[in-house]
Amino acid sequence: MSTVDPPDLALWPTLRNLFPLWWEQRRMVALGLACALVFTGLSLLIPVLIQRTIDRAIDGGEKRLLLPTLAAILVVAALRFAFNFARRYATARVGIAVEARLREKLYDAYLTYPRAFYDRHATGEVISRATNDIYPVRYFIGWGVVQALQSVMMLVGAAIVLTSVNARLALYAALAMPPIAVLTYVFAHKVFPISRAVQARKGHLTEASDEAVVGIEMVQAFGREDDVRARFGTRAEAVRAETMRQAGVESRFLPGLIFLPLLGIAAVLYFGGREAIAGTLTIGQFTLFITLLLQLVWPLEALGWIINLGQRATAAASRGFAWLDGIEPLAERPDPAALPDGPLAVRMEGVRFRYGTGSEVLSGVDLEIEPGEIVAVCGATGAGKTSLLNLVPRFYDPSAGRVLLGGVDSRDLALAGLRRSVALVTQKAVLFSVPLRDNLLAARPDADWEEVLAACEAAGVAAFVDGLPDGYDTLIGERGVNLSGGQRQRVALARALIAGARVIVLDDPMSAVDTETERHLVANLRSAVAGRTVLIAGQRLSTVLVADRALVLRDGRIVESGLPQDLIRAGGAFAELFGDEALAA
């Protein structure tokens, strides 16, 4: 079983996970159940009052009881309305609270899942499990559970009342119950797998929508609108087909749950009518039977809808709980080691790494970086540069070997402490839809503003910030959309400098900046990172030359290492990699 793609949970494990969330709302649940019990009692009382009105006031000649009994019925009906309102309010609160808690649990889990999880699952699928999949859970846990119990209360209460009046006639009325039970079981058995398929298809549809919106520039630039539209249409058609299949099952079974109770009414009309004609059953009692049986039509129909809703909810919840139960964050020791004070060395011993079941990306890398040293990691596309850098902040664990910071295995450190000590600038700078100031302070909100300004000067942010509408308070759009690619990279670099980390990992941090800006950044970078250990991956020789040492990766192995100028003169893999740039240098 994949540790980042576990199968959906079965029914009972899903219910075991749902129960604690439901139990957290036990006060509101208790209020809802109490109101449901009172509502049921009042619903049973109204037909009894009608029966007594008919037998005593209308048929029995006690006309003085007519108005008082009618008034009592109106009071009971008003009370029933009030308790029904309170029940619906309480159950709505329960459903909304459970929905919020489940979404919160998923979101909290998303923040701890390893990068391998996000490599395996599309963004749309991840979003869908915390949005689309939760809505059926809300309605089932809120309205469905209490309504189901209320329906059962109504069935039991009606059976008691009817049996106390005429046991034989009550037995005739119950003749429809066995086929109803069989129909309900078969319906639940058929609709559950379809409900799972519907939720999966909806996740695929969300994935297609997300990819189209996120990649809209490429879609429009390359004229791929028709392809994207066709892909979305295929996913939408799959959702429609599964939903129609589900509707087909519902249309075959749910009408039966409405029809079968009428058989009981028909039996009472026939046998009860004969007894009423013979005088062994009063008109009021006959009316009581008919009234109660008519009141049972909705509870029986509601049970069918609740079963359908329950199948959808458990199918949806099983997907979310499969991730919550089956995916573990990167393991941490209960008694984590501490990093030493001062600058940190970085060492890799026999490191091997592969993504999932793919081929090996790193094959026995041995590397030692002294505290405060700047090392450039070079290599052709796909050589493993980014993979090597991602091991330092422990986004992944090596398949074999060790990564050590300050002489301590990264797996022995607390993740939070490790990542406070390692700052990162990725190839694609990630900015948040908050003011520029908050983006810069994301890793260290309490940083001194003078320190922030110095980092912005070193990273080249100061060169363009005055041109922004509100300077450092300018709201940065989603993913930094209102900044250029080079500006986003400079903000990300400044953020890494402000973080105060003792190790800085720079993955091609200047790929989107112009040559003049790059010269400015290179000139200021060494002084900005003084005393910190730096790993930098770059595709430009001018970026690499800032390093004290350069190494070349090829096929997952270090094939060359040394001073950049010495490697150029050696004419080996390094000089070959940078071609004309190396000759010019």
Automatic annotation (TrEMBL):
Its main location: membrane. It is a multi-pass membrane protein. The keyword Aminoacyl-tRNA synthetase does not apply. It is found in: Cell inner membrane. GO terms for cellular component: plasma membrane. One of its GO terms (biological process) is oligopeptide export from mitochondrion. The keyword Transmembrane applies. Residues 346-580 form the ABC transporter domain. The chain crosses the membrane at residues 28-50, 65-83, 139-163, 169-188, 253-271, 277-298. One of its GO terms (molecular function) is ATP binding. Residues 30-312 form the ABC transmembrane type-1 domain. It comes from the Bacteria. Keywords: ATP-binding, Cell membrane, Membrane, Nucleotide-binding, Transmembrane, Transmembrane helix, Transport. Belongs to the ABC transporter superfamily. Siderophore-Fe(3+) uptake transporter (SIUT) (TC 3.A.1.21) family. This is ABC-type multidrug transport system ATPase and permease component. It comes from Gaiella occulta.
